[in-house]
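Contributing new records

If you add data, match the layout below exactly. Sequence lines come first and carry their own label; structure lines follow with theirs. Keep one chain per record. Anything else will be rejected by the validation script.
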Amino acid sequence: MKYLVRLGIVAVLIYTGLTYGRPWIEQLLADPNLGPLSGTTALDLRCVELAERVQIDFGEMVREHGQPPIDGDRWAGALKLIEGRWARARSACDCDGDACTSAREGLEQLSSLMGAFDDGVRGGTPPYNAANLMERIDEQLGKARRQLGR
């Protein structure tokens, strides 16, 4: 009797799995917006997210440490931290997708801005067009985000 009950339970589970599970799995595999990310898209997404995070962190660092009077040691420490995050984002953006390429370009622009700010802090004059440069970087990273389709 126990054998028949177990057999019945297994049959119900198999029937339910085939009836409901199979169509659901087929739908997941057929619709790229519902299924797991492909390898390239996942790499692109990681790249863009890290690049955006570095840009935000740099902006916060400038607001926090870039106001007179500037403490050179605190600035140098904060810049070193941001440069490490930039390097991590840059290595994540070695992928081949369009979004990676756009994010990489934004990171290169950010690197130039970081250098200009560092020179300005050490020399006393920050870059005169920093807001425009940050806006251009933001547009570049926005382009990368749009290329992901998100």
